Every structure is written in C-alpha cells, then in structure tokens.
Amino acid sequence: MARLLSPILLALILALGSPAAAQVPFGEASTVKEGLEIGTSTSEIAITSDFRGADLTVFGAVTNADELFLAIGQYDIVVTLEGPKDYATVRRKERVLGIWMNTESMTFEQVPESYSIASTRQIDSIDSAPALNNIGIGISHMTLSPIGYVGNAASLNEFREAYRRLKLSGGLYQNDTSGVRFLSSNLFRASLRLPANIPDGVHMVRAYLFKGGELLLEREQPLRVVKTGLEQAITDAAHNRPIVYGMFCVLIAVVTGWGASLLFRRD
Amino acid sequence: MTVYLPIAELSVNIFIILGMGAAVGFLSGMFGVGGGFLITPLLIFYNIPPVVAVATGANQVVASSISGAITHFRRGTLDMKLGTVLLVGGLLGATVGVWIFSWLRRVGQLDLFISLLYVVLLGAIGTLMLMESLRAMRRAKQNQPLPLKRPGQHNWVHRLPLKMRFKKSRIYLSAIPIVVLGFVIGVLTSIMGVGGGFIMVPAMIYLLRIPTNVVVGTSLFQIIFVTAYTTMVQAATNYAVDIVLATILMIAGVIGAQYGVRVGQKLRGEQLRALLALLVLAVGIRLAIALVVKPQDVYSIAVGGLSY
User: Fold this and answer.
1) A-chain residues within 8 Å CB-CB of B59?
2) What is the pLDDT of residues A150-166, one digit of tens each?
3) Would you state the pLDDT for residue B276?
4) pLDDT digits over A42-64, tens only?
5) How far is residue B81's CA from residue B167's CA, in Å, rounded to a whole number?
6) CB atoms within 10 A of CB A85
C-alpha cells in the first residue's frame, strides 16, 4: 500500500509547490479560482475468493486555497464512492390470513447499488438540506425517485427510509462523518470502506470541495471492481453462456452419480 | 473454511454444506428417496436465496438418482416405454413450472410460494406416512396379516381412452393419466427443486396400479431427465444454478448415501417409514413457523425493476 501511495503523495506535493499556488498574496485570493486534485491508492479492486472487503484511500489537494478561509476551517471536503446503478425494488410484508407475505412494492429508478461517503464534518452541517438535495450528495439526500404509480407521499417516505436503512445495515451504504482528514493546510486524505459484498463494475470516486457551505468544485475518477479467477469465470459462464453452463452442471452431476455407483459397487 | 458461491453471491462455511449434503445423502440412501425435498429447505434455512436453493436442488437430484437408475436398468426393473411417456409429461410440466417460477419471482411472491408448497406437501405426506407406518407397526405387534389389496382391481383411471400396452410392466393403460402425472411432477421439480419420487411412487402404485417392481426404476428414469432438463432451463432463464454449491452437495451426498443404504438394510421397514415421516413433518413445521412469525424486517430489497 505504502509503495503505491508515495508517488501520488509526491506528485501532489510537487503540484502544490508550483509558484502560482504559493505566491498568492493574502487578501487577493478571492480573485483566484481554487483547484481540487485527487488521486486514489488504486484504480482497480479485485474480488478474490477470500475477499472480505477493502479500504480505499483517496488523496487530494486544494490548490489556490484562500488562507483566511483555510484558517477558520471554512473549506470542507466530501468524498464519495458510488457503485454501478440499477433499479431497486423495495417490498413490504403484511400479515394476510396469518401469513406474512409481500403486499406492497416500490421500484426506485437507477440508484447506486453501493455508496460510501466520507466527509470532514457531518454533511448536513456543511450545507443546507435543500442545496444538498439538489446535488444529491449523501445517503439521506440521494435521489430516490419511484417509477410507476405512487399511492401517497407518506408511504413513499416509508419506502425510501426502509431502503436507506436496509442498505446501511447491509453494509452496502456507508457513512463516515470523520473519514476525511487534512494532512496539512491543503492536503487531505479520505478513507472509504468497501464492503465484502460490493458489486462488481465501474464505481465512481467523487470529491467535492465546499467553501463556506457552498459547493465550489467537483472531481471524479473511476474505480474498477472486478471479480477475478474462478469466480469470474463461473459468473461469466453462467450469464453469457447459460446453456453450456447448464449442460456442464448436469455433466458434473452425471459423472458424480455414475462415478459413485462404480466406486461403491458391491457385486 | 469459507468458500464463495459465485451465483448465490455469498460466502459459506464449506463444512456446513458438506455436512448438509452428507446428512441428506445418508437419509436418502437409508430411505430410498432422492433427498431434494430435504436439501432445498435446508439450504433456505442456511440463508441461501430460495431461487438458488431450488435450481441447485434440482441439479443435485440428478446425481443422487443416477446410480439408482443404473442399478434398476441392470436388473431389468425399468420400463423404458412407460418412463418415456412419463417423461413427455415431465418435460412439459417442467417448462410450465419454470415459467411460473420466473413469473412468481418477478412479482415478489416466489419465496412465499415455495414455502407454502413445501408446508402443504411435506405436511400431507408426513402425516399420511406416519399414520400408515403406525398402523403397520400395530398390525405387526398383533401378528395380523396384511390386508390383501387386489392389484388387478380397476378404477376410473382404467376407463380412460388412448390406451397403450406396456410390455415390461405387463399393463394396458391409457396414456392420459401417465402424462398428467409426469406433468404434475415436472411442475413440482422446477418450482420446488425436488425429484418428486415421494409423490410419483405412491401415485403409480395406488392410482395407476403399475406393478411395484418396475415403479422405482421407472420413476428414477423420469426424474433424471426431468431434473437435468430443469437444471438447464433454470440456468438459462433465471441464472440460478450454483455450480460450486451443487458440486459440494453432490460429492458429499453420494458418499453419505452409500452408508445410508447399509444402515437402512438393518432397520425394520415400518420403523424406518415412521422415522422418515417424523423428519418430513419436522421440516414442514419449521417452514410453517417461518411463515407465521413476524419477520425481523417487513421490508426487503431486490435489485432490478422486477415488479414491472
């Protein structure tokens, strides 16, 4: 890990050392645009058969920062890792004739299958809720728009809440309000936890810079999560060549059954 | 030691799966049943998604039925013609069954439906078997001879048209009830992940009056092809057959079965049947409890917009 990180850190420090960044006179900063740079500890995560989750470290730097705002801690960083998006159906069970069965359901449009967020503070204290809702940062501000007919607003909220609660308790959604640390006045590090059941596909690392409670800049970088080895081969076969895969399953069964009857024959 | 199941998408303890396969294999060898009706509920109890449990259960039955069928084929106690007619119904039934299965999955009622079917079938068969074996035990105690049932007696089944002659079974019977029976078993195979021998064998003996000596071999013949077909259709439509899970279960199962057969030969028939009946009832009751107890969370999430 350290071997991977050091070149990133070095590059960032060099970037910061550029004259333009260092020589902004105090007080004139408002005329200069801030910059945001990020780098991740790895660009690919491999899911092996003994995968138990992983940590992703995101390094970043705020360039051309306003010294005054920095000093009073008015810069905030939010880093998110968003998984591939898909429809998600939430179902509710009710007791019918003594038996618990799914009665109502609601399908949300294109929501990330996994989502981790790390920030310098509670993200609700960084900005006002309506503003966060508009940009959709944070688990409680994520857009969950139902498709089809929705009976009433109250049940919509219940389904949304259940969705967030289940995702959080299942570990696919994670919230770390102190996951971003400033290493120096403008260099920061964010740690994001990837759960063991993280879906494979292209994930997006996004970093947001807030200044005085307003979103200033946004950077993104892809992170590929891939299943490796036998697991990947099996999943690929099952989905891309299902007939051959099915035949192979039957073949294994025939060989096992036949082999056993030959092996244990008693006549 | 954990092993990752790529289709079920979860990590499980390999020794628990091996133990499950060996235990069910042992019981299936002891009682002469396929074991699908035990393996599928056990997998569901162990948090394997019911979709995967059912599809993988069907695959496992292929392995556990094949050695029995080979033995019967060698002994000449397998009626190919009768088996083929059953199979025609079975393949049709399995096709319809997988279609029902996919539809239930889409509307979110699959898990409930699987549990309900198991509760009803295991409850009914367990009760019938227990009553029958208790009666037999009482009779054995009083040294009463078995009441003679004339196998030649005819019922409404024998008045149906489209009669065919089955030389090996020495019967002349309409193809309609055979195809219908095969169809019903095929539907059960694809929805429950069972071979269906525990329904087919009594139905063939008591309803169709097929001579007992060819019944088991012929039903195994049908079961192998229907479960193999179901495995392939489930793999192609629901992507639900977990090859890793199936392989572990099959290997443990066929070994367990060998020991089960030896123990089974030493026990008395009616006691054996009473034991199996109690086991079947216990699994059914466990599933019934899960249906009526309030779940920990009434909400659940499924990936994909399947409700439309």
Assistant:
1) 249-250, 253
2) 667 778 888 888 888 88
3) 83
4) 888 888 777 778 888 888 888 87
5) 8
6) 13
Please state whether beta strands A214-227 and A44-47 pair in parallel, antiparallel, or not at all (unpaired): parallel
Specify burial of residue B275 (Cβ count, 10 A radius: 0-12, 13-18, 19+): middle
- All residues of chain A having their beta carbon less than 8 Å from the beta carbon of residue B67 are 257-258, 260-261
**Mutate which of B1, B2, B4 to test chain A, going by most A C-beta atoms within 10 A?**
B4
Residue A32: the pLDDT is 65
Query: What would the 3-class secondary structure string for B249-273 be?
Result: HHHHHHHHHHHHHHHHHHCCHHHHH
- pLDDT for B184: 94
Query: Distance between CA B273 and CA B126 in Å, rounded?
Result: 10
Q: Is residue B306 part of a domain?
A: no
pLDDT at A124: 67
Supply angle C-alpha A219, A221, A226, rounded to 5.
155
Q: With respect to residue B11, please indicate whether it lies within any of the assigned structural domains.
A: yes
Query: What is the distance between the alpha carbons of residues B172 and B180, in angstroms, rounded to a whole number?
Result: 17
Spell out which residues of chain A touch residue B250, defining contact as CB-CB under 8 Å: 252-253, 256-257
Name which of A107, A167, A235 is nearest B6 (Cβ-Cβ): A235
When divided into structural domains, chain B yields a total of: 1
C-alpha atoms less than 13 angstroms from C-alpha of B307 in its C-beta half-sphere: 23
Q: Which residues of A touch B29 (CB under 8 A)?
A: none
Inter-chain CB proximity A250 and B306 less than 8 Å: no
Question: How far is residue A195's CA from residue A137's CA, in Å, rounded to a whole number?
Answer: 20
Contact A108, A143 (CB under 8 A): no
Question: B2-5 and A99-112 as β-strands: parallel, antiparallel, unpaired?
Answer: unpaired
Phi/psi for A35 (5° steps) reads: -125, 160
Calpha distance A22→A14 (Å, rounded): 11
β-sheet bridge partners, residue A48: none
Question: Which tokens in the block code for residue A143?
Answer: 């857009």
Is there a contact between B54 and B192 (Cβ–Cβ < 8 Å)? yes
Q: Is the pLDDT of residue B147 over 80?
A: no
Asked if residue B39 belongs to a domain, the reply is: yes
- Is the model's pLDDT at A91 over the cut of 80? yes
Amino acid at B50: P
Per the structure, the complete domain to which residue B42 belongs is given by 2-143+153-292
Helix pair B175-192, B212-237: axis angle to 10 deg: 50
* DSSP single-letter state for residue A253: H
